[in-house]
């Protein structure tokens, strides 16, 4: 009971309740407890008074016949009113008792509301130990903010209002949070809005059987159109070449059975004790069909079983044995860093064994003679499987059942991007040597015909080390360490000297700059930048260095600087129109292009172009896919953007930019996903170096064949010759490749015998050709 203070400071009872009655409010009804009959609470009926004011709240109201009565009133819209009120409190940060971190967003909320709406969160909160933190913070792994924000509003308001492009993310998140109603609503909506562009993305996370069947049927019915979509080219590709099949695949049943064998082989090689699926997709897998109708890796098949004259199989076996030895010699890396906040994973797939995750064939098509493609789910991941069936060739003169001569070489491959080529099409059997340590957000440049990498960070710390790679020798050589450890910095070559600018040493952002002079083989400091920054881009244009964007503390910035080596000074240039960090940059045709990046809230697809003549930035066509931490370079007169992250995963995809039409098109996929990689052109080949795969920091590199637009992880075939001429050696030691080729053609039309090399064709045959012809086609 509340007591009011009068003018004399004495406490007196409040006015009687009948004087406080507001006639505008609805009149409550009276309910008897005896038989449940309701009395008519009409206006004017008097209520029994209690014997005394002090005892009114403690005595039970009774009718004359002794029945107990209750006040029974239901306010319409009360639930909505309360939810709206709690939602306002959430947005104002009032009475919140938990913080959820979703991507880069911190969300304050009331755990009671979340637990009431999500069985998963209820179980999670119920299992938490008591904490002294006033507002404990928990990070949700594998959750996209675009999906969670709509579900959060739904929890507080009961309304789902989601744009079409975000419905898949909402569906996936609601599924993991076990919010059944939201999941069913999203599934029904998506089933009615399937397109060739979105069906593969939707299939990645479908779980309930009916919805999965609807999506699979749509994919099977529209497979040819889907194979032309961007989402199809973004699928991870498992490549297999099958030998030992002595009959043709003639119908859909046989196709289904064949790919089921491939799935069985993959599952057998991917139990919980063996390496992850990523190892199977790094290269072509040559498999042998055994008599028990199972597939086995040819590297594990005895030589007596396979033809000794099959160069493809024998070279594959040698390469596999070498790779197997390297895997055994590699020790796993550990992370000793402590966590700043609690983490919990809402993705149930993480806790499921390989056998329990989905393995299924979604759709199959024949792409060419003896070549097939399937869209399948392997270990819960939607992938493409490209398979080429190559029967074991009989000896010359053997006849088939029809009486015709069976050719010795396998048929030509599919022209589809997911075609299957022999291992030795463009490369040797020797894998590219990895860097001495994994590097992410590193600097990589070309200097004197060699690849130079420096700095970056691994799982533990920022690095000072630098090393150089000679493609001909497939060998890394240590260089002098930088003066400062740094990652997330920019590197470029200007007038034959390497410059590294800014970045982070792991504790603070840097403005210092140092350069490496190959003549002295030493690093020395030069004039510092005007501003500390990291995750910026550095590029050379017109004998000057340009530093673009980056981040300062917790914000992306628009400011840009230019360095003049003649005066050893930095000066400001026009600022970007959009603040961005982790963008990639490329110089072409006297202009600078800055692509993608992040404003620290959103991953960007926008592109800006800088003209140093007018000191202005102008927009260009946006990327097809937003990405940050990508790399950029020039290929065949076009700009290519490679890898990066879309904010949720590291990417394998790439895109080409046509300067004339101002348009972007889909490019070839990397072998490994890479974010915060470096892209650099060496000896007319584009290399993707280091980065983060989404699971581990990378020490590997791969190169792009500019003719067939395919990425390789082995040494280019050009450098695999057993002997090399003096002219070729000069080229490899830093001479200009184009000029050397021209001089070689002009001085001699006939090459000595030792300057010839064996080259393998796509159909498996080989021939000996002059080295200069290879140079001309590389």
From TrEMBL:
Domain (BTB): residue spans on this chain: 96-164
Sorted UniProt keywords: Kelch repeat, Repeat
Ranges of compositional bias, category Polar residues: 49-58
Pfam families to which the protein is assigned, alphabetical: BACK, BTB, Kelch_1, Kelch_KLHDC2_KLHL20_DRC7
Region (Disordered): 1-58, 393-419
CDD domains the record matches: BTB_POZ_NS1BP (cd18306)
Protein name as annotated: Influenza virus NS1A-binding protein homolog A-like
Species for this entry: Biomphalaria glabrata (Bloodfluke planorb)
Source species taxonomy: Eukaryota, Metazoa, Spiralia, Lophotrochozoa, Mollusca
